[in-house]
Amino acid sequence: MIEVLIAVLILAIGLLGVAGVQLLSMQQTSNSTLRSEATLYAQSAADRVRANGGDVLSSSELTGLEANMQQVLGSDSDLQMSVSADVAQITVQWTEKDPFSNSGTTTQTLTMSASL
Fold this sequence. Notes:
Oligomer: single chain
Shape: rod-shaped
Distance between the termini: 74 Å
Number of strands: 3
Structural class: alpha+beta
């Protein structure tokens, strides 16, 4: 009878470990989705600058793109853009969940240089 209880205890501990790994995997999948979306928004901004003849986007265009981005990446996300010579520097910043940080979140930054 003791052997069965010990086996059940070991099985329960193992299942808790599997559940923890599954939870971490799901959080990292969510974070990778945010990174993919940030990359797509940076590429979209670069394409819009190219279509605009290499000029910086108007404030209304930039505000619209940033509003769309904030719906997907969160209200604290930010889009910065500068154009010098034939290069557009696009920076996207957002916050994602990080189980290893003290605050539980980490601010991520993607900087892309696009030739125009």
